[in-house]
Amino acid sequence: MRDLFGDRYVVYSAGTEATFVKPPVPIVLSEIGIDPSSLWSKTTSQLDEPTTDIVVTVCDDALENCPFRPARERTIHRAFSDPSSKGSSPEENLEAFRKTRDEIRTWLIQTFS
Q: Which CATH superfamily is domain 2-112 in?
């Protein structure tokens, strides 16, 4: 979102729990020109902005388990397949992350353009 619309939106990213950035994430983001060096895992309670205009959840777990975070304008939910458990080999797993990355990117363009 930041890469596509950073000139129009201030974007924050967080999950349901702070763990770590999964190893395929920096790889698949670098492939499309996004610098992953500043990524770190955080929860919504660690975000600086207490209120946001639009809240987007991208997996059913987030929709069900995120602490309530009110949006001034709207909340959008779009479930994407979690690539973490996909693939029996490292290459298949990497391909699953690529597929989810591309699906999210396409949806963001369709939704926020």
A: Response regulator (3.40.50.2300)
